[in-house]
Amino acid sequence: MSQTVATPPSTQLTAERMKASMSRLQAELTAKFGQDQAIRIRRGLHQVLEFWREDDGGASVYEDFVRRNFAGDQASLDLMFDRFQRLLEQLDGHMHEIVREFRNQQDLDVGPVRSYDETFGGYDPSAHVLDDFFQNKLAFTILLNFPLTTLDERINLGPKWTRRQWAETRLAQRFSKRIPADVNLAIAQAAAESDNYITSYNIWMHHLVDDKGQRLFPPKMRLLSHWNLRDEIKADYVDTEKGLAKQRMIQQVMERIITQTIPQVVIDNPQVDWNPFTNQVAPTTVNDSNSAAPINAKISDTPEPSTRYAMLLKTYHAARLADPYSPTEPTLIARRFEENRELPEERVQAILEQVLTSPLVSRIAKLIESRLGRPLEPFDIWYSGFRPGSKHSESELDAIVAKKYPDAGTYQKDIPNLLGKLGFSPERAQYLADRIVVDPARGAGHAMGAEMRTEKAHLRTRVEKSGMNYKGFNVAAHEMGHNVEQTLSLNDVDYTLLQGVPNTAFTEGFAFVFQAQDMHLLGLASPDARTEALKTLNDFWGTYEIAGVALVDMAVWHWMYDHPEATPEELREATLQISKDLWNKFYASVFNKKDVVLLGVYSHMIDSFMYLPDYPIGHLIAFQIEEQMKKASNIGTEFERMAKMGRVTPDLWMENATGTPVGAEALLAATEEALKQVGGQP
Ligand SMILES: [Zn+2]
Asked: How many angstroms does the Cα of residue 480 sit away from the middle of ligand 1?
């Protein structure tokens, strides 16, 4: 039987030699450092060997490396820990500084962007750092001395760890994968290809015709699937005349995309008219674009040949290439949940189902029906009518803001005052303001935190020539929330290795808290209880919708891992079935319709490697943080207490912050209250 083993003799010989080295070193080092180091020694030797490749050197190189780098007493270990913590902060901080400088021309409102600016902006100077650290064996030094952990250990043992143990855990995790450059390249290529497919998937809305040949949408309107299509459904609620017909037509378009019965020729093509109900196509009779007809495009109703699912399959095949190099998380599914989210998949599933099966769903559905004056239709998963208007008109607010903040500098100067209004002490407000730089953004705005303590966080917001407008101020309040979190969780955390928050949902929660205070920051009356209640209902309905979408994404990835040889057509059929099954389970009774495929429409599912569960989990986490802030008498001190926890697991962070782990209870309880507040007056 041993004859059939495919391993080449030389490799097998190497493996045996390395194992022999390992036993020899185990005995030698235990004799040298004592029995109480035996467990550390065994673990370190094993961790190094797991990532060691032939080109790292033979048995003698391995032995020599271990002898010189094992820290067998506490003093040497402390020294090593401190040195790595300090130097990795420098590495991350300066790399980030380069990235920020390289992106400035693109990110800031500072004049034209040349083609070389785009190249600078797309350059990542740290792309090869991990490879380098394995090559020069600094990564092996960490793996020899500090423990790799599983999510299970971080969840079950983590609450009892010291802060230093947590910092060591994060230090080791940086080197828990050694993915070869060609695998990373293959993943990046698959991501780019599917992303290209998605970003050119436009529908020319004026070219959609109904059975009477009418065009419901205005000329030139070009909507990207799915984002713009969904947002158009949301916007159409205020169109009392044609809104409903438009929404039904968009749903039909979405279903054609999901089922791939959409004629290939209508995708991003203003040269044809299309009736999405009958699926008839014809040369267009209107010209609302300057684009020429695509070369060789025949006008026929030949459907798109499952390209959507072929793209998804490519991302799956690419993602799988990394599996053998990620020993603690050997599938993309495991990497997403255990490494990126640090929440077990079963828990995420249970939390999402808790929202989906809540009795509140049917109560809110009834409320929406009474507000709409008709039974719900499937596209009403995107109902947007709970968003309340403001007491002040937008132009009124624009004038107030422009007078206060004619330029970015005046906002910068006002930061201590604004933070004071949120309850930070004068000293702490000044401390934070000293670490935030305000820049005029080219786009809508964003927050860019620092990665080392000598650097500052950057707040980017749009300032028009006539001064800041209300939208810019609202965005600035949001970004300032990010910046304050970024500053506290870098500068005030006890170990820089624990810098940050568990994941982006947490920093979004902080940003929403600040953003919701924008009226108070302007010295105007804060939203009343009814407005707050409507916002909560809007949050709930949005979470209910995206929870189902996330479950589709998760089930589809499991199906792909279970059917590695599947064709695009088989994946299409499976996705349709999964979408229908989840609809039938959680939505059909609310919307009085079965077998709807709409949950499969999100473009992220095609190009984002199972990103979608981040949305509903993010909603819930942000909501928990916002609710905790409402309970606190002072946002400032509560904010500081929470942000200093650093990057531990989401549950541990949330327990420290709010007394309970990540979950849906806060949203469900607030929704119950909101229904009481709004219920009587739909
Ligand atoms: Zn944000």
From this structure: 10
The rounded Å distance from CA 316 to ligand 1 centre is 29
How far, in Å, is the centroid of ligand 1 from the Cα of 326?
30
**Ligand 1: distance of its center to the CA of 539 in Å?**
16
Instruction: Tell how far the Cα of 478 is from the centroid of ligand 1, in angstroms.
Output: 6
Its pTM stands at 0.89
Inform me whether the pLDDT recorded for 34 exceeds 80. Answer: yes
Q: How far is the CA of 294 from the centre of ligand 1 (A)?
A: 39
Q: Is the pLDDT score of 48 beyond 90?
A: yes
Q: Give residue 290 CA to ligand 1 midpoint distance, Å.
A: 36
Average pLDDT along the chain: 93
374 CB contacts (<8 Å, ≥6 apart)? 244
Q: What DSSP string describes 194-250?
A: HHHHHHT-EEEGGGBB-TT--B-S-TT-EEETTHHHHHHHHHGGG-TTTHHHHHHHH
Q: How many angstroms does the Cα of residue 215 sit away from the middle of ligand 1?
A: 37
Q: How far is the CA of 567 from the centre of ligand 1 (A)?
A: 38
pLDDT at 231: 92
Segment 625-644 mean pLDDT: 91
Burial 434-445 (b: 16+ CB within 10 A, else e): ebbbbbbbbeeb
What are the Cα distances from residue 299, in Å, to 253, 258, 302, 547? 18, 21, 9, 39
* Dist. CA 419 → ligand 1 center (Å): 18
Kindly indicate the confidence band of residue 90, based on its pLDDT and cuts at 50, 70 and 90.
very high
Model pLDDT, residue 527: 82
Poorest-confidence range of 485-499, 550-564, 581-595, 622-636?
622-636
- From the CA of 479, how far away is ligand 1's center (Å)? 6
In DSSP notation, 322-351 reads: TGGG-TTS-SHHHIIIIIII-S-HHHHHHH
Nearest CA to 236 among 394, 379, 395, 361?
379
Contact 654, 662 (CB under 8 A): yes
Per-residue pLDDT, 4: 40
Its sign, for the CA torsion 339, 341, 344, 349, is: negative
Closest Cα to residue 423, out of 653, 657, 654, 629?
A: 629
CA of 482 to the centre of ligand 1 (A): 7
Our CA angle for 475, 477, 479, nearest 5°, is 70
